[in-house]
Amino acid sequence: MQLKHMKTLLTPQDGAAKITAMAWAPNNTKLAVCTADRVVLLFDENGERRDKFSTKPSDSKVE
């Protein structure tokens, strides 16, 4: 398999583990990126950011 760098989606940030998860949609049209700040970023198939929303823990005592 050969990979080709096409575009940088997020600017580099200081610190470790800023991105906790990445997932493609089953039809390969959207990419979801979860950050350590509990923010989910959605990108389209061209690498353009389309949506951004924050999440909250299921247990309100957890920060």
Automatic annotation (TrEMBL):
The keyword Cell wall biogenesis/degradation does not apply. The lineage of its organism: Eukaryota, Metazoa, Echinodermata, Eleutherozoa, Echinozoa. PANTHER family: IFT140/172-RELATED, INTRAFLAGELLAR TRANSPORT PROTEIN 172 HOMOLOG. The keyword Repeat applies. One of its GO terms (cellular component) is axoneme. This is Putative intraflagellar transport protein. It is found in: Cell projection, Cilium. Keywords: Cell projection, Cilium, Flagellum, Repeat, TPR repeat, WD repeat. SUPFAM superfamilies: WD40 repeat-like. GO terms for biological process: intraciliary transport. InterPro entries: WD40_repeat_dom_sf. Its main location: other.
